[in-house]
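Hello Y.,

Per our agreement to keep a running log of every chain we model this quarter, I'm adding this entry. I've kept the format consistent with earlier entries: sequence first, then predicted structure.
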Amino acid sequence: MRDGSRMGYDSLKLRKGFVQYENGFSKDEKAVYSWGRRIMGANPATFRVLSRAFVTDGNHVWNHIGKVKDADPTTFAACDSGEGNHWGTGYGKDANSVFFSPGDLRARRVVKADTRTFRSCGDTCLVGYDDYFTFAQGSSIPKAKRKGWRYLSYSYSRDEKAIFYLNSRVEGADLESFEVVPVFSSHKIGPAPLARDRNHYYWCDEIIDNDEFGAKFWIRYAVVSDPDDMPPIARKLGWELENPIVGRK
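Predicted structure for the entry above:
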């Protein structure tokens, strides 16, 4: 949207040169805004979007909530595209530190992260790693061993001994047969992830074999080809998979 001086945006009159960005930031010739709230000190002439989570004007770096403390704007770059329907989550880094934007809070420095080797896993923009540690939501993953660690998808990861969902170990998961199950969603931000192995069904890090609430989630969103591929409680209750993609082989 440009030159929207005759339109309104969050009860504000739009000035000449107004530009709306996909991540909720906007600017006109005199100011920069985050969801209609003016960002004090931001220069609209040099303002640019780095990701859904981070923006800069060359003098400072911001997320939706405020200025990123101690970030070096001259070397700062986004590590992923950022994710989120409203508040952007994601990683960024400069020459000295790695930062994580949790979305609805100020971005924070990722302790222990090596800025030279850090990488975001993209996908949900919540998990990352460097040559020495693994991270989820801006914190190191407890008990995860960097040697042999690899990212799966939908915020699941594994090392040589365990499966993890974000910062939590998935108790009881079978390493050999564990697999993440695609979920159906008509929105960019999908529902919470699902997984299974030869012994159990999972919703995030919880076993849902006999959990009606979790089983209902599986019934509604799991993308599987076998109509009987569902938690035991769902089969016992005679439920049917609701996803229209299910059943196509």
